[in-house]
Amino acid sequence: MPSIPPTVFDPAVLGDMFNGDMAVMAAVLKTFVASTHANIAAIHDAMAQGDLVATSLLAHKIKGACAQSGARAMEQATRVLEQAAKSGDGPASEAAAQALTAQWSTLRKVLAVL
Q: By Cβ atoms counted within 10 A, which residue in 12, 48, 73, 93 is the most buried?
């Protein structure tokens, strides 16, 4: 396995959860990638409509999936977005959504080499 900064992705989270079963871990990550891709697209749609309630709910959903999968940097980025959206701060939410998108891009590259 290539060296991965644990701040980006900590494979030990899934490894501990599934006793190192690589097949199960791969299946979980595949589901995580698909659902996260869809949820991030939904965040962009919600942001475009100015719907910060939906943005907050979607960020919360992604945050939980990131925590369960070991996606540390994305978990933090979704936490920031969730809080900004909950507070009704449109500009901060926009900046946080852009940061989340950047973290998602980084994570997809990391996961692609696993």
A: 93
